[in-house]
TrEMBL record:
GO MF annotations in UniProt: extracellular matrix structural constituent conferring tensile strength
Stated name of the protein: Collagen type VI alpha 2 chain
CDD domains referenced in this protein's UniProt entry, alphabetically: vWFA
Similarity remark: Belongs to the type VI collagen family.
Lineage, uppermost ranks: Eukaryota, Metazoa, Chordata, Craniata, Vertebrata
InterPro entries according to UniProt: Collagen-VI/PIF (IPR052229), VWF_A (IPR002035), vWFA_dom_sf (IPR036465)
Database matches in Gene3D superfamilies: von Willebrand factor, type A domain (3.40.50.410)
């Protein structure tokens, strides 16, 4: 079947697409919903086959993003950005967008998207789509005449309205205006979390790529993850391993085997300052003053394997806040000279393997330090008894960053493992 073919080493092609996502980054959205918007963009684009390797190429998808708040704050990932030549470089650019948290100038943002992204750089033979996500609130000082700025006849505009504002007739009309008065192109939902629901992503895939071509090589199929992972960009991954007595020795061993499996799957860097590929570190933590660096950020597989063979389970209590602060001071920074040990140009990823049951001391301070360091969190939450409030905190409010699995044995499941690797890469 088509779905099976796509999991082989085949390539999905949607023809020449120029797609611009226009996402609301105003205060009324909130940080969590802004994160959901970004994940929606990434999840949709990851379904669209190959990103154009060269922005001047006549084939492949090019994707731009405008995030908007009040006048003068619009930020864009341009359609013709030469640095974006793969899904991973696009994903990186989207993840770096920071919530603006100001007012809402939606009509001006639509005008900006048309003038600065579409008009200036669209490809002659490409189909052009715009996807607008809004909660319907916009500043009355911003002229409604620009609501149809994208309606030039050759841009297919999809408007997604989220929240209770669209129960009011005038806001409903606003949404239809954005979509160039085409009811088929308007989607309303109650919650931002619906954006990342599998069914809705499927729907968007059909909208943006209705007639995909599946092109397979002559070679036999390989699984998707047979290709090297985390190769296009530098990623420094710090694993936090819960060494509390709740976990139990057997689960602890499964967890550190998982870290080893991840290290084997990733393409590790060849040296500390290499401009691509992965390095990993592991911190086991227990009570407030119990943190053990099993190994610092390294690309050396032998060092990783040796350290994991010698790791001793703390069998202690749990204080995650102190562990995060300790890692910031002793792994992200070099504990000897206080210089940064994480690569400056690398995505810094913290992976927490925990149920979230932890002492709350220092947790807020730890979250602040993660935000300051632009950490990309991933939470692997195991078991049925988890503290979702804590998990959301350390996931910086991003539900999509929380992988909830029923037990530690799930870490061995290929379906989970593949999703996890794709997420951190």
């Amino acid at each position: 079947s088509e779905k099976e073919i796509q999991t082989c080493d085949c390539e999905k092609r949607c023809g020449a697409l120029d797609i611009v996502f226009i996402i609301d980054s105003s205060e009324s959205i909130g940080f969590t919903n802004f994160s959901l918007e970004k994940n929606f963009v990434i999840n949709v684009v990851s379904r669209l086959g190959s990103i154009a390797k060269d922005p001047k190429s006549e084939t492949g998808a090019r994707v731009g993003v405008v995030q908007y708040s009040h006048e003068g704050t619009f930020e864009a990932i341009q359609l013709n950005d030469e640095r974006i030549d793969s899904l991973s470089s696009f994903k990186e650019a989207v993840k770096r967008l920071e919530w603006i948290a100001g007012g809402t100038w939606t009509p001006s943002a639509l005008q900006f998207a048309y003038n600065k992204l579409i008009k200036e750089s669209r490809r002659e033979k490409a189909r052009v789509f715009a996807v607008v996500v809004t909660d319907g609130r916009h500043d009355p000082r911003d002229s409604d005449t620009n609501l149809q700025a994208l309606c030039t006849g050759d841009v297919i505009v999809n408007a997604i309205g989220i929240g209770d504002m669209f129960n009011k007739q005038e806001e409903d009309e606003t949404l239809h205006s954005i979509a160039c008065d085409n009811k088929q192109r308007v989607q309303k939902m109650k919650l931002f979390s619906e954006l990342v629901a599998e069914e809705f992503i499927d729907n968007m895939e059909d909208v943006l790529c209705p007639d995909p071509q599946i092109v397979c090589p002559d070679l036999p199929c390989q699984t998707e993850l047979a290709v090297a992972q985390c190769t296009q960009r530098p990623v420094d991954v710090v694993f936090f391993l819960d060494g509390s007595e709740r976990i139990g020795k057997q689960n602890f061993q499964i967890a550190h085997s998982f870290v080893e499996n991840v290290a084997e799957k990733l393409t590790l860097a060849k040296r500390d300052n290499e401009n691509m590929n992965a390095r990993i570190a592991l911190l086991q933590y227990g009570s407030e003053n119990e943190q053990v660096v099993a190994f610092p950020l390294t690309y050396n597989m032998t060092e990783i394997t040796d350290a994991l063979a010698q790791i001793k389970y703390l069998d202690s209590s749990s204080n995650l806040g102190s562990a995060i602060i300790y890692a910031s001071n002793n792994i992200v920074l070099n504990s000897r000279d206080r210089q940064r040990a994480a690569r400056r140009n690398a995505e810094l990823s913290f992976v927490f393997i925990t149920d979230g049951i932890t002492g709350n001391k220092n947790l807020d301070e730890a979250i602040d330090s993660m935000k300051k360091q632009n950490v990309m969190p991933t939470v692997v939450a195991l078991g049925s008894d988890v503290d979702m409030d804590v998990l959301l905190k350390i996931g910086l409010g991003d539900r999509a960053a929380i992988f909830q699995e029923k037990n530690y044995a799930s870490l061995y499941q290929p379906s989970f493992f593949d999703r996890f690797i794709r997420w951190i890469c």
